[in-house]
Amino acid sequence: MFQKYVLAVTQNGGPGSIGLNDFKKRGLALLIAMMVTTFIAMFSFLYLNITATRRETQLCASLIKQIEATKQAERKNMNKSLAFASASHDVRTSLSGLTGLIEMSYELVTPHSELEANLKQMNNCIRDLLGN
């Protein structure tokens, strides 16, 4: 029922057979090849891992520089906007003061005079500038 198989290896080998010394030599060569392959794989993994880490560090540094540049640009833009808003406020205030002076001058001029026409023209121009 059960079959048994036996592997017989001779000490010195004979014609057409593989001897024990040949198995030892082949086994040692295979062990050395596997160890060399393992070391190559390990050093390749370490090299690739170190290279990837360096690349990631460079990318992080570049990203930090870009973020800082973006923040600086945003601050400059905000400062510029505030300067324009302040200048616009100053101009509008001055124009409003001129409007008040023109309206006060209407009472002092004679009707249908050239001065009244000039005051009306100035008032219209100021209203256009103020957007009223």
From TrEMBL:
- Keyword check for Kinase: yes
Q: Which UniProt keywords apply?
A: Kinase, Membrane, Phosphoprotein, Receptor, Transferase, Transmembrane, Transmembrane helix
Q: What reaction gets catalysed by this protein?
A: ATP + protein L-histidine = ADP + protein N-phospho-L-histidine
Naturally occurring in which organism (per UniProt): Lupinus albus (White lupine)
Protein's recorded name = histidine kinase
- GO molecular-function term, one example from the UniProt record: phosphorelay sensor kinase activity
Which regions span the lipid bilayer? 28-48
Going by the record, the broad EC class of this enzyme is transferase
Could you name the domain of life of the organism this protein comes from?
A: Eukaryota
Supply the InterPro entries for this chain.
2C_system_His_kinase, HisK_dim/P_dom, HisK_dim/P_sf
Which Enzyme Commission number(s) are on file for it? 2.7.13.3
